[in-house]
Amino acid sequence: MHRSFGQIYAGKTVLVTGHTGFKGTWLAHWLHVLGARVVGFSLEPPTAPSMFALTGIGKQIEDERGDVQDAAALRTLIATHQPQVIFHLAAQPLVIPGYEDPLTTFNTNTTGTIHLLDAIRHSRLTPQHSALSVVCITTDKVYENQEMPWGYRENDRLGGADPYSASKAMAELAITSYRQSYFHPDKYTHHKVAIASTRAGNVIGGGDFAPYRLLPDCMKALMAGEPLGLRNPEATRPWQHVLEPLSGYLWLGAQLFTNGPRFAEAWNFGPQERRGISTRQIVEKVIELWGSGAWEHLEPDVIWKETHWLAMNWDKAARLLGWQPVYTWEQALAETVSWFKAYQQGDDLYQVTVEQIKRYTACGRDLHLSWAN
Length: 373
Ligand SMILES: NC(=O)c1ccc[n+]([C@@H]2O[C@H](COP(=O)([O-])OP(=O)(O)OC[C@H]3O[C@@H](n4cnc5c(N)ncnc54)[C@H](O)[C@@H]3O)[C@@H](O)[C@H]2O)c1
Prior knowledge:
The protein is an alpha/beta fold and about 375 residues long. It has 13 helices and 13 strands. The chain has a domain at about 5-210 and about 240-275 and about 305-325: NAD(P)-binding Rossmann-like Domain (Rossmann fold, 3-Layer(aba) Sandwich). About 45% of the residues are buried. The site of nicotinamide-adenine-dinucleotide (NAD) has 26 residues, from helix 1 and helix 5.
């Protein structure tokens, strides 16, 4: 395992914001396995139960509580820990709560990102500093829907009608502005900061208990022995296992560290199945893997509009980073269901999570993917 990602992470101080959340917990585990000194900065876990608490990763890392809306706290954090790599995931990550509380959504996702970038700017005001790679996580929803039949590329226009999508598109503009103004690639030898942003779609995996998401709703219904209510069974989404975009973030972070400004730009990470998989296909496969269960068709909810899914093109990551997804959607679901079965049986979820990371890495190695070797 230590060999993956060019062995960049062993012994490095890596800051993960949003480490108590679903993706952040998986990332903290992976970095810990890779031998990094992981510092987490987040609010409390966003759900109860949470993967963060169930797997006990907080005991293996430096687990700090704080709010990205607090600019001073972020400055102190960076000055105290002097991270060499930062993964910024802290966010209000859901569309419907974004409609209900736009202020918190914009303050967390846009202003919170600016606070982090500004804390980094302040950390460069003293002459002695080592290289810093920053990977900011946004979403595939940052693209303005121009009704294109093909997948959106990194240089397509940003937009986003609902507050969540707009808050992340605004974060993208702030990232570009800080890169152009303070961390310009042409002046890398002076500031030594390489900042990239990443856009990925709907992820699935063990340990997600968030509301308004298909897989958590599905697993909760199956574990309770109740039928799952589906409002839009034919809706398709670009489902991918959580370890897919995380492998992209980690490989990008490693490339930024090794090659500096060459990779300091925006990157899409998408699934193998580019047309998307329908909700009905997902749910029927999950029921088969679980061994029992049923679903029923409910009236569509018309109060809040979910952003229309925009297809995303990840050719750039494939060509320039040598990245590609590892799992089919069926393998992604098998790993997800197996994690929740272990949860229901009361197994050691720390071990289960690490085993899933090792299995994914071994599959990447079988595919001769550069990040896995
Ligand atoms: N899960 C997905 O399908 C998906 C898809 C695309 C993009 N993303 C992005 O990935 C990132 C992680 O998403 P997730 O699904 O793990 O979300 P999550 O809700 O599980 O985790 C969010 C994390 O952010 C922290 N957080 C929230 N507000 C904060 C604040 N004000 N200050 C500090 N920390 C705060 C929470 O404590 C938690 O640790 C987000 O940036 C999200 O927009 C997720």
